[in-house]
Amino acid sequence: MDESSDPQIALTDAERFPLLDDLSFLNALKQDAYAPKFNFKSGDRLNALHLSKVKSYKNKYYDKKIFWNEGQTPIWLNDYLKWCHTTVPFYQNKDIALDSFPTISREDIRKYPHLFVSNEANLEELLVYYTSGSTGPKLDVLFDAVSQASWLPQIESVLKDFDISITENKNTTAIALICAQEKTLTYASLSTYLEGAGILKINLNPSEWNQPDDAKKYLEKYNPQILTGDPIAFMALLDLKPQLNPKALVSSAMKLTKGTKNKLENYFRCPVIDLYSMTECRNIAYAAEMGHKAIRPDLYLEIFDEHEDVKLPYGERGELVITGGNNPFLPLVRYRTGDFCSLKIENGIPFLVDLEARNPVVFFTKSNIKINNIDISNRLSKLSIAGFKMHQRKDKLIQFVGYSNDITSEEIIELLNIIFKNDIDILVDIHKISQNNTVEKSQYSSELITNK
Amino acid sequence: MSKYDVFELVTHLRKCPDIYLEPSSLIENEGLNSIALVCDTYRIVCNDFLKKEFKKPSDFNLAYIGDNHWRAIHISIWLLSHRNFINSALIEDKLYNFWFEELSEASLYVKFKEWISDDERAEEMVRLLLDCCEIIPDGENQDEAADKLSSLSSTDRQKVLKQSYEAHERIMNIKREMAEKKAREAANTYGRE
To answer: What positions does the domain AMP-dependent synthetase/ligase occupy (chain A) (predicted)?
Structure first.
């Protein structure tokens, strides 16, 4: 997701940071000799009430050991459904019991964003982003400063699993969101929740910097504790060979292959966390050995049949469906994520097993043997490839476009030939990763009928 | 015990003589003596023609009853003259609520002539009276009677319309705010989604 690309009305610093008096570190970040040509300003918008809500969100969920057990539902669920039924117009004509709730889709939110706003939500606190539409039509996402800032305690709970904590200090840069795109909003900001620590959103695209080495020098000078971004941005950062000591890298938005993860971990000498999140409800899970470990006790996860409103039992693969969240402008009940996995509960914590983004696609060898895209993902994950698109034409030819500075076309062809049992024609195009890429999310597609 | 047939009571109500449509003497000097009508109805209902003390609003509150409400009370007095209600002492203490609470609210939405001229409003008054007097119409059970009254209730309908209007206003406000906020700075983004 990217922010609204053309916000025309700017706020004052007092509106951006109602509780922060000392903006000297922000000015240092913005006015540094190596600083990029920031094209935007941003704040966390947290006033005292908002901040207390974010902190109470952390207190409520940070140490939660058991989300729910198999055969049970979370204790908050009934009250949440009742609240949705009473205050959210979209849900008011639905039955109050979860089992009677039909699933909803991205299309519902796209068409009727206003109907998902709780009658209790204060419209003065409404904030709007719209997605770039990289995985579908553009989508208005309504939220507030509290649900947005809740990203921080959610990530803190993930970092805790790695014995990492973010230092809260007004002279440190806590988080840098790294982009390597043609164009995006960039800004320096602060986090009230992190006691005024710096927040950066930067684009490695050389056109955004005064001197070619400035991106490297700037990042080295402010040495952010946590780097966030997608695998392509991280590989572009790696190319600069910056001397940084991040506590962790948080990768999201695209599939992170094991090869890329290893490469980043070897260089930055810190955990690289593969985060599963989505615009509609933000953080959901992160990749662990057993599968993607759920992060948030306030999200209830279920698996449904892809085509019918039929809930599937634990262990069976289907579409991930989400209920819950803390956004009064978009409370979700049985929201179809468009992503597929099976669900397993381990000691009260849900794990998403074999999570694959978007609809499963079946490929065929020339002699019509079916090949599941999960098998392809598993094989490709060993390579240091930051992103890819794979398409099968009607004549069964496979077109593969990958983004990597290490892998050759021959290696991909060899690997795909193993998967397709040497019974396929393949065209491979590997693009080098630069500091300004125009890459969409990894995806599979096919012109063939793919009834599984 | 009488059988309270809704159709029969509606038929009786719709035959209401014009004299009952006159204003109250508390509003116009030449009008009907509403207090006397109310007291007489109490006497008929409890079959005690010597009784002098009846539950009625204070003089102060009587002054606040509007013309449309008084005429609705007059019409309902005609309805209460039906033989079903004569010598029905159990409903005596229910009439105050009917006349001065329920009919007061309904009169905000119903013009007095409609209680007679409009089939649905006539049935509404009959059912409202029976409901206030805790009488279940002949051939119905409690739930059916409640459902039928609810489907006719001018007050309920008005509430639904008001809620619907408010919901519409809220949606229009959200759409306005969305358009306005879309053009504004939002808040920090910390990671990609």
So the answer is: 126-325
Residues A115 and A33 grouped into a single domain:
yes
Convert the pLDDT of each residue in B54-93 to its tens digit: 898 988 889 899 999 999 999 999 999 999 999 998 999 9
Q: Is the ipTM of this complex over 0.85?
A: no
Q: Which residues of B131-146 are buried (b: 16+ CB within 10 A; e: fewer)?
A: bbbebebeebeeeebe
DSSP character for A432?
Answer: P
**At B13, is the secondary structure helix, strand, or coil?**
helix
Nearest to B154 by CA among B189, B193, B192, B102: B102
Buried b (16+ CB within 10 A) or exposed e, A203-220: bbbeebbeeeebbbbbbe
**What single DSSP character describes residue A329?**
T
* Segment B169-193 mean pLDDT: 88
pLDDT tens digit string along A273-288?
Answer: 999 999 899 999 999 9
Q: Which two tokens stand for residue B14?
A: 């719709």
Assess if residue A252 is contained within a domain: yes
Q: Which domain holds residue A154?
A: 13-71+98-290
- Sequence letter at residue A174: A
Cα gap A116→A105, rounded to integer Å? 12
Separation between Cα atoms, residue A190 and residue A175, nearest integer Å: 10
* A-interface mutation test, from B165, B168, B170, B190, most A Cβ less than 10 A away: B190
Q: What are the backbone angles phi and psi of residue A150, rounded to the nearest 5°?
A: -65, -15
Q: Is residue A219 part of a domain?
A: yes
Q: In 3D, which of B170, B159, B184 has the Cα closest to residue A116?
A: B170
Cβ distance A42 to B188 less than 8 Å, yes or no, reads yes
**CATH number where A439 lies:** 3.30.300
Has residue A130 been placed in a domain?
Answer: yes
Q: Does A20 touch chain B (CB under 8 A)?
A: no
Q: Please answer whether residues A303 and A334 qualify as being in contact, where contact means their C-beta atoms are separated by less than 8 angstroms.
A: no
Measured between CA atoms, the residue of chain A closest to residue B175 is A114
Give the pLDDT score at A147. 96
Residue with tokens 């947290």: A46
CA separation for the pair A444, A400 (Å, rounded): 9
pLDDT band at residue A131, thresholds of 50, 70 and 90? Answer: low
**Across the interface, do A189 and B188 touch by the CB < 8 Å criterion?**
yes
Given A275, A290, A305, the domain boundary residue is A290
**Report field, pTM of the whole predicted structure over 0.90:** no
Sign of CA dihedral B67, B68, B72, B75: positive
Q: How many CB atoms lie within 10 A of CB B49?
A: 8
* Count of domains observed in chain A: 2
Q: Is A140 on the interface with B (CB under 8 A)?
A: yes
Residue B111 at interface with chain A, using a CB cutoff of 8 Å: no
The secondary structure of residue A444, as a DSSP letter, is: E
Q: Can you give the pLDDT at residue A1?
A: 45
Quote the tokens at residue B72: 């609705």
State whether A269 and A378 are in the same domain.
no
Read off the tokens for A302: 């279920």
Q: What percent of chain B has pLDDT over 90?
A: 74
What is the pLDDT, as a whole number, of residue A117? 96
Q: Using the 8-state DSSP alphabet, how is residue B18 labeled?
A: G
CATH number at residue A32: 3.40.50.980
Assess B58–A contact: CB distance below 8 Å, yes or no. Answer: no
- Domain check: are A366 and A248 in the same one? no
Report the helix count and the strand count for chain A, using DSSP H and E: 12, 20
The reply to whether B168 touches chain A by the CB within 8 Å rule is no
